Amino acid sequence: MTLELVLFIIFGSIAAATAVLMITRRNPIISALFLVVNFGSLAGLYLILNAQFIAVAQVIVYAGAIMVFFLFVIMLIRPEHEQKLFSYKPQLKIFTIVVVLLIFLQLIYVIFFAQTSAGLTKEVSASVNAGTIESIGRELFTNYVLPFEAAGYMLLAAAIGALVLAKKKFE
Amino acid sequence: MQIPIEFYLALSAFMFTVGIAGVLIRRNAIIVFMCVELMLNSANLTLITFSSYLGETTGQLFVFFVMAVAAAEAAVGLAIIIAIFRNKLTVNIDEINILKW
After folding, report:
1. Which of A37, A46, A112, B99 is most buried, with most CB under 10 Å away?
2. Is there a contact between A70 and B78 (Cβ–Cβ < 8 Å)?
3. CB contact A61 to B (< 8 Å)
4. Assembly ipTM
């Protein structure tokens, strides 16, 4: 048992457990908080995978900005009869379980038996180099500068779009 | 001992299926939206895993762009939910069916 494996088990089980808890809680605030914990443990997994920059960005962008946004919207929207929202039909439940099991078995089959990635071992030095902010920044401003600029315009457009959509229309 | 890559991929697959289950069983539009974020994150985990095991930066750049798209999507999607809530006073996706015929 190396430290890497212990950390993987801890963060992985936290991520899996909070994902399940998130979809089973009735209160949307509690769901959102479990999702924050899930994002935090994912950031830990990214650190184990030597992706430092993405781990920090995950905490700042996902666990910080996006989830605060979700919590604000939950606060703005009146918590109506959550009981009614939660009560679903039993057929839907069975359908969901069947669909989800099929998809999960497919994915697990591909991962473990299709041998697409068998024998892939991590070269630690290469993967540490790949995850630094220096190499990501170099790629971002040389080979991927056009998508980078496009992402900036997309964020601007999304901000304006959100404003226009959510604005109250005064007559 | 190194962690086999299959462990990470299996965790990612599990989180993705949990996200699908949440989209199918929950009726609250905001929770459905959070499940979509969960699925995006499980795909991100796969990208980071392959990027790390192959020693390539490209996967992490993809994750960077996915994060940008997710932020934009969250902003616009939640604005749409607020606009719908203002008109119909509900976030139950069973009652939001004006585009269904």
Report:
1. A46
2. yes
3. yes
4. 0.91
